[in-house]
Every structure is written in C-alpha cells, then in structure tokens.
Queue: 4 jobs
Job 1
Amino acid sequence: MGKKHMVNRIITYMALLILMLVVMLGVYAFSTYSILSDELRSEASSILAVYGGQLKGRVEQMDAMLQNLLLQNQTSLLLLKSTSEPKRLYASQSIHNNIRDALQSDQSVNVFVVADNDYDVCVDAANLSIGYWDREALRAYTRDCAAIDDFPKTWHVVTLNGQGYLCKLYAYRGRAAAAFTSTTNFLASVPKGDEHGQTLILTDGQGTVTGFSGTALTQENLGQQLADIKTNGLQAPAYTLAAGQVLLHLRIVSVIVWNQTRIIMAVVFAVIVVTLLFGALIVRYVSREMVQPMVRMTEDMRRINGENFTLRIQGDFGTQEFTQLKDTFNRLMDMIVHLRIQTYERRLALREMELKSIRLQLRPHFFLNAITTLASLSSQHKETEIKTYVEALSRNIRYMFKSGLHTVTVGEEMRHVENYIAMQECKYPGCVFHFIDLPQELAPWRIPQMLVQTFVENEYKYAVSPDDVLTLLIHVSKEEFGGEEMLLIRIEDDGKGYPMDVLQYMNGDAPRPADDGERTGLWGIKRMMALMYERDDLISLANIEPHGCVNLIRVPSKPLHEYREKPV
C-alpha cells in the first residue's frame, strides 16, 4: 500500500484542525443563540404576564359593570315584559340612560345591549363610533341569544360583521343583557410592542385567532387556527383571560436574537477566515521549505536504491537542517558502498562454505547407511547380496563424487535413485514396490544433486519394514507456483507418515526440532534449497489417510547460488 505524502498529511491535519475550530465556534454560536432564545422566551412570558394581568383586570372591570347594570335596572328589565307600552317605553329609556351614564364613567365596555324578544325591544349604547351595520349585528346577536335560556354566562370572543368582539351575555326567558368590547380596542389598552417585534394575539378556547396587535399577523389570519399560522419567532405559553374561553398569546420575532448574536457570528466568521489564511501560509511554507526538498532527496534516494550507488544527493537547500542531512547522507553512502563491497565478498565466501558443508553432511549420512547395510548383510552371511550391493554402491559413489556443477539433471538424479533402490533391495528384498513417472521432456531440468535420493533414503530408514511391502511412487511434472513455472517432484508412500514436529519444521510452521541426529538429511535438504533459491516454500510435507505421506518438492528453473566443486 502506498504511503501518503507529507503535504497531503499536513493539509489533512490542517483541514481537521480548521473543521474542529469551526465546529467549536459553531457550537459556541449555537449555544449563545439558544441561551438568548431561552432568555427571550422567559422575557416573553414575563411580558405576557404583565399584559395579561392588565387585560384580565379590564375583563373583571367589564364584568363588574355588567353586574351593576343588571342590579341597577332590575325593575326596568322586568317592565320590558309589561303589557303596557308606555311602561315598556319608560323602562327602555331608563335602561338607555343608565348604560349611557355607565359607559361615560367607565370606558372598559364599548357597547351595552339589552333585548327582549316578547315585545321586540332592544336598547343599546356605545362609547365609540359604531357603524349602522355593526350596531345591527350586535343587536341581532343579542336577540338570538335571548332565546337561549342556558346560554353560557362566560366571556367569549365573537366575530360579527367582520369585527371581533369580547362578549359576556346573560339570557333568561327571552330577555338578554350583553356587554361588548371590540378586540382591537381591547388589545389597544396595553402598550404596543411593534418596535420590539412583539405581537399580542387574542384567541378563543379553540385557538381561533379573533384579534391581534402587532406585525406578525395580518387581517387574513383572523378566523384561522393559531397553530396553523407559521411565523418566525418565539411564542410564550398562553395566558388565560377568562375561564379558558379567551386566551392571550405573545410572539416575538427571532430577528431580535439575531441582532444580539450577529456580532458574535461576525467574530466567529473572522476567526475562521484568519485560520484559513494562516493554514494556507503554513502549508505553503512547509511545502517550500520541507516537502520540496524531501521530494528531491526521496527521488535521489530512489535512484540510489535502484542499485545505482554512484549517485549522491545533489542541490542546495534553504535550511541548515536539510543541508546537514544531505552532507551526512552522502558521507554515509560512501561508507556503505565500501562496507557493502567487503561484506558482499565475505557473504559469498561464507555461503559457498555453508553449501559445501551441507553437501559434506549429506555424503557421510549416505556412507553411514551403506556401512550399516554391509555390516548387516555380512552378519547374515549373504555373500551374493554383498557383491551386488558393493557394485551398486560403487556406482553411487562415482555419482556422488562426480566433478562439475552442484545441480544435475532430474533424469540423472532418477537413474541414481534407481541404482540406490537396487542397492537397498539387497537389504530389504521384496519389501519395496516403486514406480517413477518422469516425462522425457522434463528429464533435462536441473535440480540439486542428491535431492530426490535424500527423501528416498528417509523412506528406507523410517518407513520400510521387512514385514510389509511399501509402495513408493515418484511423479515429476511442471506447475505454476508463485507466478513462476517450476518442476514439481511428488514422492508418495503408504508408510506410517511423519511425526508432527517434522511436518511443522519442514513446512515452516515451527523451529527445527532438537538436534538428536535424526532426519539430518531432511534438515540439510531444506537448508540447501533455501540457500540455492532464496525461498523457504519449495518443500511441503503432509501425511495422508489412512496412512502414508506425500512430499512435494518444487524446483525453479535456475538456482540463484550454486557451488561448483573443484576437480581434485
């Protein structure tokens, strides 16, 4: 996976830093806005309580005026149902004078209306100019309510002829007395808050807008549900003016909060802009003074890493640190090249010594087995077998001490294996059935000498028994392995298989078992393959069911290191 460039990392970190700063400033601005909104909402509740208290006091005053009207005119109200027309006229005039005087002394109520349906009597008086159709609407409403004996005796809001009125009405046996105050006049009794973005809203018990004072609403909103009217601003909880039938609301536009926070937002924006500019300057400086010199040095190092050890870091740098780094690196390269030459020569000598040592280990291992076999045949007085064995042994010795390359053709190795098996037949007659499958076109492929024989020797030492017949199969083919065409030698038997520690070491899954003199040939072959081809995955061992083992040996087309024996 490619690594990121430093400039990309710096830009990423700067972006994260700026993002964190922006988030912090945003959170601060949002929290400030929320605090101011809460304070404004609390202030709105306080203002609404003050205004609501004033208006509720007026409602109580209007209620008292209506109660006094009923008490002072009890006799006249009774006379409205008199059969004598003069008495009704007298009573009407008396009621009119009383309500007119009451309106003049206290203007809390705008209109009083008294009606009796039996003789179609209706008396009214007002302390403000009311149009003819408005007056007729009030009179008609009062007559209609007079016919309802159980009409609620509570304040409520009614809209007549397009005008909202706060109304309270007493009705009994076709007679009614009502007090009306227009919602516009009612709300005008408290200070207007337009310059502060305040709007007072009057609704009935169902939330229908019946009047307002302020700019948040328009005339088109009258008669609509307040909850359905979308306006920008804060709304305080409703204040009850009359037993849940008349409610007062207050809305304050959010621009007030914005006006109080815009200075903070301007400062936040300025900090963000300054941070961006400062970040850009840092990135530009780092790119010029650090990244560009490092890119030049990295490019020179890449060329040096491409085995061109004559190159050195060139150029002048603007900082003392990079200049010192360049001079130090060049001096170190001179030293490394000198040491590399010496070390390389020593390693070659040591590698050849190790390869030679491994081959010398394999040869005594073979000779010890041969001597043991001769001793066994001699103790059994098998002179004919001894003669056959010695002839085969001589052929093997000539093969092993043959001068030339450390690798031989696989065809030559297989002929040597056949000779070795013939030699072992003297010791184990009829105990091994073997079959070698070597395609003719693969016979010239070169493999390390004694490679196959070492595995076959291991079979005879640990798998062959005089009591059983061991089947030994050797198959040679080609395959793609690790992106390279290799020779695959498969050696399979039906013996008892390998111990677990041998499998783990040969497959590279565990360290080498304790050096007790066992499996020396296998250990040497594994090390020899690693030295010659610089790979540890060329040998793979496994046990098979129900019994037996399979050895997979892969040989590349050419070794990387090869030891040549010098002719004696």
Job 2
Amino acid sequence: MNIFAELSLVLVVAAVLSGIMRILKQPLVVGYVLTGLLVGPHMLGFVKTGEEMSIFSEMGIAILLFIVGLHLNPKELKHFGSASILIGLFQILFTTLFGFLISQFLNFSITESLYIGLALSFSSTIVVLKFLSDKKDLEKLYGRLAIGALLLEDVAAALALVAVSGIAGGDAGTASFLLLVIKGLALLLVVSLVSYYVLPKLAPFFARSQEYLFLFALAWGFGFATLFGLLGFSVEIGALIAGVSLSILPYSAEISSRLKPLRDFFIVMFFIFLGFQISFDSISKMLVPLGIFTAYVFFIKPLVFAVWTEILGYSKKTAFLVGTSLGQISEFSLIFVLLGFKVGHVSEDVVSLITVLGFVSIALSSYLIAYAEKVYPVFIPLLRIFERKVPNNEVDSTKIYDTVLFGCNRAGYDFIKIFKEFGTQFLAVDFDPDIIKELTTKGINCIYGDAEDAEFLEEISIEKAKIVISTIPEFETNNYLLEKIRAVNENSLVLLLSYNIDDAIKLYENGATYVILPHFVGGEFAVKIISDAGFDVQKLGVKRGEHVAYLRERRALGHAHPVWNHNK
C-alpha cells in the first residue's frame, strides 16, 4: 500500500478500537496502542516500517511540549520549582537504586541493571500531560508539582542519553559532553535575551492575523526543536524551551488553543507508534521480570512519589495525586535502552522488556490517573502516616477571574477604567494586538484572544467568572459566548452589547443578564443629565466641559463612533 492508504487504514482501525474502548468506558489511549500492535509487523502486518508514524509521533511530542512550555511562564516557575526539583530528584535516585537491585536479583548484568534502573525512574511526559490537560488540571497544585518533576526527569534523561553517547565515544565523547553543556548554557542565554527584549516588540506584528500567528508559532516551535537537535540536544527539550520563550507574551493562550487540535492528532500517532514497536518474540522468557517490574513501576514508584511529597509538607491528597500521575515509564526510557543496545551495553531482551513494560505501565497508569479521585479513599490510612500535622497551605494556580471583559475599544474603554483597580481579578480580552500592547503598558491585566474560540475560553476558565461583559457588537459572537457560559453557569452576570433591537431581545431570551443598546442608553443618559441639572445653566456647563474633555481623550486614543446602519 502507498503511504496515504496505510495512514488511512491506521486511522480507521484506531477509530474502531477507540470507539470500542469508549463503549467499554476505558481510556482511549489503550485503543491507540492496540491499533499499533494490531496493524504492526508482529500481528496483521498491514504497516511494515512505521517510518511515517515515527515522524508524526516525534512531531506530536514536540507540539505537546511546546504547548506545555506556553503554560510555564518563568515568572511563575518559582512558585513550585524547588519542591518539584526535590520530588523529582529523590524519586530518580530511589527508583534507580532499587530498580538496579531488583535487576541484580533477577540476574541481569551490572550494566544492564543500571540501564533498567534509570529507565524505570523516568515517567512519561506525554501520558501525564495528556491526562492533566484532559482533566483541566495543568494549573492545579498537584499538576504543577508533577510537571516540575517531569521536567527534571526529562533533563536527567537528556543528560543520560548524552552520557551514553559520550561513554561510547571514549575521551572524545567526554569532551563532546562538556562542549554540549557549554552550548546549552549559551543557547539558554540567547533565548532569554530574545524572549524578553525582541519578541515583545515583534509579537504585535505576528498577532495581526490569526493565521499568521498560528504559522509563526509552528515555525518557532519546530525551528527551535530542530536547532536543539542539530546541536546535540533532544528535539523535545528544544520544543519545551521554545514554548517557555513565548509564555511571557499576552498571545500565549491563543497560540495554545490554536495548536491543541494539531497536537491531539499527532499524539494519537505517538501512541499508535508505541504499539507498533511491541514485539513478543523474545518476551516469553521475560514474563517473571515483566511482572515484577510492572508491580514496581505501578505500585512502588507512585508510593515513593506520594510519601516524599508528603514529607515535603503537602497534604496526603495532593501527594497521592502526584504519585498516581507518575506511575509509568517514559518514552525516554525506550530511547535510552535502545541507544544502550546500539552501543552494545544491553541485549535485545532488555529492549523488548522495556518496550512491553512501557505499554503495560502506560495502559495501567491511564486507569489510575482517570480514576484517582475514586481510588484515593482506599489509601488514606497509609498516607496519613507520613502527613505533617500542619500541611503547607496549598493554593491551586488555576487562573480564575471575577470579571472578564471582551472588547476593549470604544464601549469597553469605560469598563476598563472602572475595573482596573480589580488587578488580576479582572481580565481584559481583545483581538487587536495594538490595543493589547497599549493596555499592557498601562499595567492592565489583559490577554489576546478570540471570543469565539472554545479552547481559548477554556484556557481562561470563562465558566467560573462572576461577571462577563462583551462590548463586541456582532450578535453571533455574543450569542456563542452566552451559550458557552450558560451551558455550565446559570448564575454569572452576562452583559452584552447590541445595535439591533431584535438581536437584543434574542440575547435576553437566551439568558443574557442585560443587553446594552448604545443609542438608547445615550438618550436615557441625556435625559438624566437634564433632569438632574434642571434649569441650572452652570451645572449643565460643568457637564458640557467634562464631556468635551472625555471626547478629546477618546479621540486621542483613536476611538471612533461606529457608523449607524439605518436599516437596523
């Protein structure tokens, strides 16, 4: 079959098996992996090489880590960096040591035992981030701690890969390792300077077109990933740093929302490719080690994470959720042992063992993550032993705004003046990069985004806002926004703008709290001024002066009054 036909067949099989998984209420990831196993060379053999899936898989990993980086603003990393480092570091040391000892007990060589121990210590960034994202827990405390630990593991995995290459290369390899460290530090310095001093000036140009912003983000992410790959690092690290470099921009949420559908497709291909690689030819004699290591990764490793997290002062529930999130081995584990096989450090049996262990642990972990809240009560007695009497105060960093304003020009300007004092509890959203730039310089909490983008609305947790105001005059946009809010929140105040009476009535019927019709409001306001002033010319003169000053201020800002359509 040609490439198009092969990929079409793979997607059809994936859709069928995933549909069955959904009917059975199982994680869809299991269906993806089974697809790769079924169509691969070890079963039906519909796909022979899997090169295309391998490329798609790598692209999926890069996009996923790029999106993760977009959520890791360097200014916010300090809130969970040290705890995550300690959690990740202790877990790597403990899991590697005991994994090594178990391997020795199972009669693996010292070198193979070291490889297995390290491979068991790495958790799957792809699996954890996918489930945290699906559960909308990326910004929760346990999610941030898990991500921090994963980042440390990814760095350790990258160093391990470089070290293996260095050992294989002798003295030249050691020199290459030191040179790589120097290049890495230089790259981070350059990226930091560009991120803070160059990108903020160029970003408004990119953001003038959503299509171009999407293209720029892809080019930036893949460009950095490729650059890091060419310089001897992993493309995954490059993609992550590329995302972090854009995270300080007010357009990061919009970029993230635009990339998510693309990410979902390529991540499906990653799991299919994982199943594609599974071979049972040499695993029959590995059943006992496979069972022991599966129990170790699925039970002992999460317990280590949980206990150590509690010792650091977090509550037993946070500790449990951190542990259950990281109870599997990583895609880096597979790469790591495969490199060891290429340089002659481990046998093919070890490669097969780690590959199948990866599938089994990811499948089991998927269930554990999905049902963690239901399983948690069973482990409370055990976790209570290690919990501090007075745990640390824990606050999720999920960004919830009391008031969200869509549209900051003309009518929105007056709301901004009122709500500015709310600080971070107020969020201004606009689709014009020039307005975002101006609001940013004034210290107003703002973000670039589209009110009709469902992913973006989820990013800012619109359903949790107490007040939502839209000064966008388009009925379709306001009605879509209203439907999204009312689907999950009947109590929030939703104020919308309309230039049309019929549209205003429809918005009321669909649940709007209040609809502003500027021309009628203007008449009501004029009547109120005259009523308050009566026949006092001096009072009216004061109002006149205030209004003239206000109009000049708006003219200076470039605000123009919309042209009235007499047909409406």
Job 3
Amino acid sequence: MLPPLTLFGELSVLIAAAVTVSFVMRLLKQPLIIGHIATGLLVGPLVLNILQSREIVHLFSEIGIAFLLFIVGINLSPNVIRKYGKIAVVTGVGQVVVTTAAGLVIAIALGFSLVTSLYISVALAFSSTIIILKLITDRGDIETLYAKISIGFLLVQDLIAVLLLFSIPILSLGNESWADAALTLGKGIFFGGALLFASFHFLPKINAFLSRSPEFLFLFSIAWGMVIAALFKKFGFSLESGALLAGVALSTLPSRHEISARLAPLRDFFIVLFFILLGSQMVISDIGRLLTPAIVFSLLVLVGNPIILMAIMGYLGYRKRTSLQTGLTVAQISEFSLILVALGVKLGHVPVEILSLATLVGLVTIFGCTYLILYSNKVYRFLAPHLGIFERRNIIEEELEEKEYPFILFGCNRIGYDFIQTFRRSGKNFLVVDYNPDIVRELSREGINVEYGDAGDLGFLESLNVETAELVVSTLPDVETNLLIATVVRQRNHNAVVFAVAHQVADALKLYTAGVDYVVLPHFLGGQYAASLIEKLGSDKGQFAKLRNDHLAYLNLRSSLGHEYI
C-alpha cells in the first residue's frame, strides 16, 4: 500500500494531471479552461478523489482570483469607469431582473415551489466574472468595447449577488441588525474613497521611487493588491471587489503596464487551481430526475440570457456585433449561483437536490459559453443576417479608440534623443518606451507619449500596439532585448521597418538574421560619417569652421540634457 501523499506531493500530482489533460485539449484543439475544469472532475470525489487538501488549494485559487481582478482593475482607469458606468448598471440590473422573471415562470411551470423557484431563477441570472475575464484575456480582447461593458455589468451583478448573500441570512435568522449591515456598507464606502484618494494624491508621488527597482515594484504591487483584497474580505465584502479596486488605484501610474505584465504569469498559474477546485466541487446526484429541468434551464442561460442582453443593448443604441459579443458573456451561471443555492439548502429553504440541479446547469453552461466566446467571430458571421432586430437605426455606439503610433522608440537617452527630434519634425504620433522613471516623467511633462516598461519582458511587449507601426526603433544596448523586440514586431507586423543598435559585428549579424531592417553600429557609423565629410568638404577650412560651430552648439545642448557620452 502506497503511503499517503504529502501536501507538496498532492499539489505536484494536481499540476501533473492538469498538464496531461491540457496536453490532450491542445491535441484536440479545445480551450484549456475546459481542460482545467475536467481536471477538477478527474481528481475530485467523482473519479479519483486525489484532492484532499482543499483548504490549501482554495487559498491558492483565491490568490489567482485576486491577481486576475487586480490586473483587470489596472486596465480600468477612473475615466473608463466614468464612461461605461451607466451602460454597466443598466445592462447588469436589467439582465438580472428579466432573467429572474423568466426563470421564475419556467420553474413554477416545471412544478417547483415558489421559494425554490425564486432561488433557481435568481441563480440563473448571475454570470461568472472569473470565467469571463479569463476567456476575454485569452482572446486578447481586454481593451475592446464589449470587454469594457462586460466587465462593468459583471461587477454590478457581483455586487447584487454579494448583497443577496449578505441579506438573506439577516432576513431569515434575524440575529443581525440592519444597523450592522449599514455599518459594513459605510466601511466599504470609506475604503473605496480612501483608495481613490491614494490613486490621485499618494501613489503618483512615490511612483518614481517604486519604478527605480523592478523587483521592488513587483513586490509592492503584490503586497498592495493582496492587502487591500484581504481588508475588504475582513470587513464583509468580497475579495474580488477589493482586488479590483486595488488595481483601479494603480491604473493611473505610468508603470501600470509593467506591473500588469509581471503579474500575468502568477495570475495564470494560480487561476488554474481555481478551475481545478471548481471542477472538483461539481458532484452531481440523481441525474435522471434532474435532466429535463437542467436542459430547460441551461437553454435559458445559453440562449435566453444573450438575447435578453442583446435586446437591452440594442435599445440603448449599440451595434449588433457589440451586442452579440457582450451577450455571449452571460451565457453561463456564476460560482455565486452555486453559493446562493447552497445557502438556501443550509437555511432549509430549498431541498438538497436543487444544489445538484444548479451544479449540472453550471457544468453545461460553462462548457457551452466557453466555446461561444472563443468562437464568437464565427458565431457572429453565422447569425449576422438575423440580428438586425437587435439594432436601432440611430446608432449611438462610439468606437473605442485605440491609440495608434506610426513610430515607436525603445530607449530615449543618448542615441534615442536624435530620433525623438526627427519624429517630432515628421508631425506623426510616436510613442517612447523607457525604463528610467526620471526620463518617463520628463517626457510626460513635455507632452510626449511615453510608457514606462521593460522591453525585455515579453508580456509588456505584447501589450503595446505594434500592429499599426510604420517604424520601430530600439536604441537599447542589449542584443537579447533587441532580438525579442524584433521577433514580436515581425510576428505581428510584417510591414514595419525595424531599426536596432548593436556594438559588435556578431550582434549586428544576429539582428539582421532576426529580421531587423537596419542595424546601427555607433562606432562604425561615426567613422563612416567622418570619412564622408572629408570626401564631401575636402580641406575647405571655412566649411569645417561652420560645421565646427554647429557641432559645438549641438554638444552643448546634449550636455545640458545630461548626455555626457554617446
């Protein structure tokens, strides 16, 4: 008989199982999120029953949720919240109300009692913020219009769900006063206001200090997000809301993209454990008797919820494509749905088999919604001729503007300074990327578009919009970083001209092999330029006197800017 697994051994088996199932999913060209949930079913009590240390895995899954919401918050600046807050509230509340009403009628028609029907109908109205954010992130759509709206109304739904979970025990047991509830709400408002104050007045002042050390910035970001999330949970609010607001507080910092890129690998690892845990908790009994209502309720969620949301967004003046993509994000039920039904079972409001029913509906809708979202473009092309009824003649939807930069420069100082002057004279938009917080602050004061970030970080490079660039220039001295820049640009934009700097011939040859269009070798280029001057001016002392004066003025300017050597 084999000895019981240690905690480390158990986690190793879970990860190995996840890798194995994910490998099969990749061979079958299926979404990995389906594989993670299937892994949970495999290691859970339904099959192998390997997962025993549920508290530890639950802790890790909470860390993954916190990182996921924290990174989303970093991309939700106060301006975005102000712009899409109204549509988020209208769609979030509207879809919950209409779905609840439809679900109530259907549940009563299927023979469920009024109280049970209320629990079922409300559970069908909520969608999973965690699952949708993961799918949107996997598609690379986090900056699109439908993603902004979806994130907004999903958070509104989460707020409604939290209020219900908080209120139902109070209404049922009467052992807590409404004064306590009001006090908790007041604490939430206080913490939210404090975070907004910090985001505008405190954090920008220490950004330069934080950014001088990438390791310290990384550590500070983790501490900030987890501490704020823990405080919100401590005072009766959801961990998700705390993590999201912690991210929003950092969304105004120049280093936000750097923070997001560095935290992404941590998010991806820990969120896998969330989906494994979710799959392991899906224990279903008495499937035969529950099959018919499960199919009916799953159709309401998979088909009815998107139609309800599309009707609301169409009425508000959004295009049918945006309405469909947004509508597909509500085609599954939330983990809050299962928690709500479990609470009803605990309080004796609903029979225990209703939890199995909700679990079965969750399993079907999560699987179905995953495919609908990941293949939403194909779904739209197939349904587009029939979606005209969801679009008004007078469209009020504004296209989400994504900044386009014909010129992108990595590295400002020394060599980069001359490129900036050339870009300015061109009259075209350009973006400067630099890792020095002092340079970033100075360029920002001059009104130059600038991003703080490490060009050697693949995640950060992929967050930049290089698809529309005409010219990408790197004056960075590290050949490995320049090779990475060239690789990313060539993968996403075959037409851009790429310049890079090298200080050795061997490095220049590597860069040319990687697809760089022209490599600048400062020492060779300087000698070549000096030789061309002699060829052009000969021994004309007057011409050299003019050239000397121009060069002195240029050197004095560079010296005043702190460029002591080139």
Job 4
Amino acid sequence: MSANVKLYDTTLRDGAQTEGISFSVTDKVRIAQKLDELGIHYIEAGWPGTNPKDIEVFKKLKKTRLKNAKVVAFGSTRRPKAKAKDDTTLKALISAQTKAVTIFGKSWDLHVNDILKTSLDENLDMIRDSISFLKSKVKEVFFDAEHFFDGYKANPDYALKTLKAAEEGGADCLVLCDTNGGTVTSDIFRIIEEITPEVKKPLGIHAHNDCEMAVSNSIAAMQAGCAHIQGTMNGYGERCGNANLASIIPVLKLKLKLDCISDLQLKELTEASRFISETSNMKQMGNQPFVGASAFAHKAGVHVNAILKNPRSYEHTEPAMVGNRRRLLISELSGKSTILRKAEEFDVDLQKESPKTKRILKLLQDLEHQGYQFESAEASFELLMKRAMKKFKSFFKCEGFRVIVELEEDGNLISEATIKLEVNGKKEHTAALGDGPVNAIDNALRKALREFYPSLDGMHLSDFKVRVLEEKVGTAAKVRVLIQSQDEKDSWWTVGVSENIIEASWLALVDSIEYKLLKDKVTK
C-alpha cells in the first residue's frame, strides 16, 4: 500500500456525462476552484477539441490561479494507420497547454477487433506512438487502460502488452480502468497483485459503479499497490457513475491514515460536495456516506438515547472531521440544540428553554414542511432567526410588483418588471427591463433602492437554481429557488419557495438584498 496517494478528479469530464448534468463554462471553473481548495492533485477539465465549451474552459483555467491542483486535458490515442504528429486529437491536447494530459487506449482485444477494427499490433503501436509524441511536448502523461480488467480476464497476455506499450512510450502512470463497472473487489485486488511485478511505472485505478463497488474497488486497488485514484465528486458519471471521491477521501484519511489531503481540507469535504451538487443542479443524496444530510442523522429511539450519552455508540467517525453535523431527528431537545448552535454563529443570544427558541424551531419545521431547505441558504436562515427574534427590521416594504413577458413581432422576448416599494416612509414606483422575468425584477428592485442604499451597486447575482419539489404534480408543483449573490468580499445563498416560480424568485431576491444590507450594517 502506497503512502503517497494522488487524487485525480474527473467530475468535469466523466461526471459531465451524467444524465441531467450540463455544466456551463463558469460552472466548470468554479468547480475546479472548489476542488483545488479541497486539495485534489489533478483536475481533468474536459476533452479539448471536441466542443467549443471545453476549449473555452481550458482558456479560462489557464488564467485561474490554482494552489494545489494541476489541470489535465483528456483525449484518446491516435487513429489507426495515422501518424501521431498529424493526429487532431493529440494536437488539441497539446494546444490546451496543461501540465498533464491523459489519453485512453484499448486494452481489451474485443474492442480492438470489434470497435476499432484494427490489428492487435497496430493498437499497441497507437498506444506507444501517442504517448511518446505527447511526452515530448507535455511534462506528465497518464495512460488510461480502458476496459483493462475485462481485457485481462479475456486475454491477460494482450492486456499486459498494452501496459508495456504505454510504459515504452514514456507514460508516467498506468491507470487500470474498470470501464463497464462489472469487476468484483476480490478480482481487482488479485489482478493488480499479479501485474505489479510485470510493470515498472506506478499504477492507478479508474472504477465505474455499475455493481455498486466502485469505492471498494478503488480502495482495494490502492491496498494492492495503486498510488493514483481517479473518481468524481458525489460519484457522478456515465450510467451508474464513477468511484465517489467524497467517500474515498475520508476512507483513505480516517480509516487508512493516509494524508492525501490535510485535516483542514477534510473539514471542507461536506461543503465541497454540496457546492458541486448545487452547481450541477443535482439533488444531493441524503444517505450519501460522510457528506449526506442523513449520514449522521439518528431517528430510532434507542439510537438517539445512546448518542446523547456517547456519540461513538452509533457513529463510526466524528461528523465535524468531514465538515458534517449530527442530527437527532425525533428529539425536540436536539432541534433546540441545533438552533442554539446556529444562534451562536449569528451572534444571537438564545437560551434553551426560551419561548423564542421554541418559536424559531416551530417556524423552521413549518417552513421545511413547505419545501424550504436552509442547508445551502444560510443567509436566509440568519434572516429568519433574526426576524423571529425581533432583531431585524426590513430595509424596505414591497407594496406590489408586476412582471410582463411579451413576444414581439421580430421574435424577441421582452421582460419588464414594475415594482412599488416604501423605503423610509418614501414611496417608490419604478420599472425596468431584463433578459428574463427574474432579471427584470432584480433590475427594478435595485433601481428603486439605489438612491437609499448605494452599496447595492457592489453586489451582483452569481447563480440561480430552480428545483421542482413535487414532480407528480407537474406544472402545479412547488419550486424551490436558490440564488447566490456576491460582492467584493464574499458570497451568500438565499432561498424562496412557491407554486409560482416568479414569487419564489422574488422571495429569494429580497432575502439576498436584505442580507447584503444587514451584512454591511446599513443604517436605515
């Protein structure tokens, strides 16, 4: 087992192949920054040359300062019977100007014969030539041996030859891929042990999750000698997904005592997982190990009773170590305790048996029943708590708003919002256009408030997410809108819920502006 494990994230490439995920350029850059903060060593950003989006991503990342991670470009070996120096895929990899590249090649003779439709020897030449060419231009080159375990089980001699061809080409790491995700853990361990004496270069693992074994297969591979582990955050990926780095990292760190990231970075794991979930517009699985909302949640009476006496009785690790928190679901006392902890963070004086504490707990439960979720919208929760405590007075009062969306003869859609407000006893009635209804409301709201609160000019909306809460109800379903706002100092999330997406957006927008003014300690 190697003590020097390298973490390789492919969320932006393999994870982008998840059904329902479509990253924007901005999404990819923000996720890369978050992965870098987490301490990931390599970030595979995409396949340059295949689409304009990934070309733009590599340009943006080249200008983005990353402290820990190297950006990696991904591609394939040259085409059969072609020259590596003339291959468009390989030239695109070089043009990405990354410090490392990864190419995949076929290691299963079935794929060589039936998919590539070339000879086994030509496939070896493709691997050797491609890596040799790339190695002359790029510092680090990784070889993903696609379908390696299936190939080894079918024709071990040939699968091993593909690794040796990559080694001869100068590959820095030979990554063994369980591409179909069908290999069991015992076979992963056995095969890696068998081939380790046959190669000189470090081995890596890239496991898919079609048998729900990607994490265990990755850990077993590492224990058998691999020093390079590929995966995605939250297990995103084609079909059933990839090995989940949000589970692999704490297993390496807490169970196997391998310092793959620092203790402080590990405490950011839950926040990173949820950030990437929101940015991907994917619902976070509550029962996800380590980082899920239910990972340290206790409901059964026996469990709760034991946890209150000694948390180790029903928890395999301390939730704070991965940035998560304990939740006692059926205990009114635990609900109060959670609120008291939050009140402490927000500098609000609350006592456990105070009627105000009970009132906030009841309000929180009612709102969550309506569909609100404050896990990713702490700015809204701070406002909720301070409103309930009578420690916050709104900076303005809405007397009404209207949004009109009009399709013009030339085919353009025009959105216009009209808003009536009262600010410090003064009536404001204004209108503004926008790229869409929410943007129009935002513009009108700022236009009305700018005279009173000039600091709003330093704030802008940076993200907008919508989630349908009751899919079976169809177009009548409630929606939850999450809005991220930021200024020159920090960023914050707010939330709104309604059957009407415009109203939900309005509620989140109002909270975002109120929080900005509260944060700036604006005097009314």
